[in-house]
């Protein structure tokens, strides 16, 4: 950014800071943000109970799928890997104890849209390996003349040979094709079990399977607060292994600390069945650890994030299928923390909120937000550009007169 542009930005922020105060922001947190948090927490509690019962029933039919109660270090496959690493389990428990309201398998994208990872069992001893370059098959098993498209930066193939000791149940044509574990096939088997389990559990009045495009299982769950749309994604959880393409932490960065970054990487990553052929890399455990104790120096990072998230949901980007979700804002927060690592950078509540909003405005305007761990991937690459431009205009209006929205 040029010196002139930087001064213009500072002038704009300085002028607007005069029309709302820290007290206004604290009141906004108490009256708007906390109310939303209580409502969402109740919805999460209701959804978690229902999905826990459903996935437990699915697991009783097919042990390759586990209940969401077994996610993270509670995953029975990971317990085998971690039985000689009690320190890692203890570290995870300590980081989340009292700080994580939700089951780690649940990601709240919006107040009415949840993403839930359904852990898979029987795939142990993962090792990243060079895979065959091309696949010449369809999901039905017929041969193609031209190859299936290669995975993009945040996706990969997954082969049975990637695991030292996959259970015999995974050598199943309903799940695999020419040695590949095929996400769409895994999802199809899961969907069949889920449909049966909804009836077995007597939940037909509360849970209904929705139409979906591609390899996704979408259900509507009726709660005491609202109807919640849930995307259920079979997930391979890989603990104590860090993918090569996630070149993190970056050299000469002071946030997070070296010790904390090493701890975060020890919690590994996930592979999620979100597309037909390719598995999506997910770093949800690492992100949860990164968020825990984010303000241990007394800063206001989390408060800023909560304010911006509320403004996004109320003003800039409301609705059940917004172009910007809480995940985008979380990623933006991580990048901002990395750029401003010092305690003194997070003491001015008003200034920090406006700085985060300015950064969001820049990303939305440019249609570009880097994934935090795999930098080469743009999280907004396939987003609707018209919707992004509309959000940018609304954020611009906010920056012209933020006090109108915060009072």
TrEMBL record:
Where does the record place the Mab-21-like HhH/H2TH-like domain? 300-396
Where does the Mab-21-like nucleotidyltransferase domain lie?
Answer: 102-293
Q: Which InterPro entries match?
A: Mab-21-like_nuc_Trfase, Mab-21_HhH/H2TH-like, MAB21L/cGLR
Q: Which PANTHER family does the annotation name?
A: CELL FATE DETERMINING PROTEIN MAB21-RELATED, PROTEIN MAB-21-LIKE 3
State the family it belongs to.
Answer: Belongs to the mab-21 family.
Protein name, as recorded: Protein mab-21-like 3
Taxon lineage:
Eukaryota, Metazoa, Chordata, Craniata, Vertebrata
């Amino acid at each position: 950014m040029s010196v002139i542009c930087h001064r213009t930005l500072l002038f704009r922020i300085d002028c607007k800071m005069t029309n709302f105060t820290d007290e206004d922001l604290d009141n906004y947190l108490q009256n708007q943000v906390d109310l939303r948090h209580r409502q969402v927490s109740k919805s999460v509690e209701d959804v978690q109970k229902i999905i826990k019962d459903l996935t437990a029933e699915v697991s009783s039919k097919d042990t390759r799928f586990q209940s969401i109660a077994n996610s993270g270090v509670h995953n029975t496959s990971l317990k085998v890997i971690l039985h000689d690493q009690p320190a890692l389990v203890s570290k995870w428990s300590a980081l989340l104890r009292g700080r994580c309201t939700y089951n780690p398998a649940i990601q709240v994208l919006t107040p009415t849209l949840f993403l839930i990872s359904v852990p898979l069992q029987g795939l142990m001893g993962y090792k990243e390996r060079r895979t065959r370059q091309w696949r010449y098959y369809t999901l039905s098993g017929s041969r193609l003349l031209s190859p299936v498209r290669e995975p993009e930066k945040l996706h990969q193939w997954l082969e049975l040979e990637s695991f030292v000791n996959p259970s015999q149940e995974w050598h199943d044509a309903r799940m695999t094709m020419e040695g590949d574990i095929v996400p769409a096939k895994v999802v199809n088997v899961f969907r069949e079990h889920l449909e049966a389990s909804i009836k077995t559990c007597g939940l037909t009045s509360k849970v209904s399977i929705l139409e979906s495009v591609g390899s996704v299982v979408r259900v509507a769950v009726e709660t005491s607060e609202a109807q919640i749309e849930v995307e259920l994604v079979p997930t391979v959880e890989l603990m104590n292994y860090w993918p090569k393409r996630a070149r993190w932490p970056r050299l000469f960065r002071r946030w997070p600390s070296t010790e904390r970054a090493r701890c975060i990487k020890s919690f590994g990553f996930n592979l999620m069945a979100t597309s037909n052929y390719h598995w999506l890399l997910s770093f949800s455990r690492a992100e949860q650890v990164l968020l825990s104790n984010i303000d241990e120096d007394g800063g206001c990072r989390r408060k800023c994030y909560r304010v911006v998230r509320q403004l996004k949901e109320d003003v800039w980007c409301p609705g059940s299928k917004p172009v910007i979700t809480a995940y985008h804002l979380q990623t933006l927060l991580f990048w901002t923390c990395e750029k401003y690592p010092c305690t003194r950078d997070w003491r001015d509540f008003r200034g920090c909120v406006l700085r985060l909003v300015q950064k969001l405005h820049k990303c939305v305007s440019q249609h570009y937000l880097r994934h935090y761990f795999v930098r080469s991937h743009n999280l907004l690459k396939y987003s609707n550009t018209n919707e992004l431009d509309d959000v940018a205009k609304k954020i611009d209006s906010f920056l012209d007169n933020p006090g109108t929205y915060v009072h």
